[in-house]
Amino acid sequence: MDKFSLQKLKTLTILYAEDEDGIRKKISDSLRYYVKDVIEAQDGQIALRLYKELKPDIVFTDIKMPKKDGIELVKEIRKEDKQTPIVMITAHTDEEYLLSVVDLHLEQYIIKPINLKDLKNSLQKCLDVISNNHSVSKELPCGYGYNFDTKILTCRDKIIKLNKKEIAFFELLIQNRHRVVTYAEFQNYIWQDDFMSDDALKSLVRNIRKKFPKEYIKNLSGVGYRLNDKIS
């Protein structure tokens, strides 16, 4: 896994549903080494509630769980969401059983016991899916739109110029529209190995805000920034 992929993973959140406490803790600890956070759920019912509340970037789920199994969980998610990458974890090796869930659009199956290579391969596949999903034009509030392929921001067909750091900042906000992007994430994604001073970040935000309506980019003091999807 290359350096850019590792940096990108550090901005993502995983929902992991597994009813066996020991397995869930072990795998969650491994995943936290690569991603920003892991949201744990001990059954499918809790996992569905957490998915709706927190909108994770990736879902990992076991199949056999109480209250709501992994297949039921994925079916519920896929009713509204066809894009979030989902990895199914199973102890089953029966081909007919696995073929019965092909139409759920899963990124990968992992057969227990899980090893580190399986996890890394699954994360890379999920990251590829997320990147592909973002390589299209995104409609944004107030008539704005952004194209990840061309790196062009528009407002009612007028091109708004962004420099390299502004592009990276804005893409990170778009990719995480459901939550606040933290200062640490801006450091890792934009400045990388260089030091990000408070003044440098404030200057970047001040300049990019000039290109949008007031309150388009919201600040949560001491935490970070997010897009304001409620603005009209």
Describe the structure.
With 232 residues, the protein is an alpha/beta fold. It has two domains: 3-133, Response regulator (Rossmann fold); 137-227, Winged helix-like DNA-binding domain superfamily/Winged helix DNA-binding domain (Arc Repressor Mutant, subunit A). The protein contains nine helices and twelve strands. The protein has a five-stranded parallel beta sheet, with helices on both faces. Helix 3 runs parallel beside helix 4 (70-80) and helix 7 (164-175) packs across helix 8. The relative contact order is 0.11.
Put simply, the count of helices is 9
Order the strands across the largest sheet as they lie in space: 2-1-3-4-5
N-to-C terminal Cα separation, in Å?
Answer: 40 Å
**SSE string:** HEHEHEHEHEHEEEEHEHHEE
* Total domain units: 2
Strand content: 15-25%
Q: Do you know the CATH topology of the largest domain?
A: Rossmann fold
The major sheet is characterized as: 5 strands, parallel
CATH class of the largest domain: Alpha Beta
Radius of gyration: 19 Å
Number of strands: 12
pLDDT < 50 stretches: none
Give short descriptive properties of this protein.
single chain, 232 residues, alpha/beta, Rossmann fold, Arc Repressor Mutant, subunit A, 2 domains, five-stranded parallel β-sheet, 9 helices, 42% helix, elongated
List the helices and strands and how they pair.
Blueprint: H1 3-9, E1 13-17, H2 21-32, E2 37-41, H3 44-54, E3 58-62, H4 70-80, E4 86-90, H5 95-99, E5 108-111, H6 116-134, E6 137-139, E7 144-147, E8 152-155, E9 158-160, H7 164-175, E10 181-182, H8 183-191, H9 198-209, E11 217-220, E12 224-227
Parallel strand pairs: 1-2, 1-3, 3-4, 4-5
Antiparallel strand pairs: 6-7, 7-8, 8-9, 10-12, 11-12
Helix pairs in contact: 3-4, 7-8
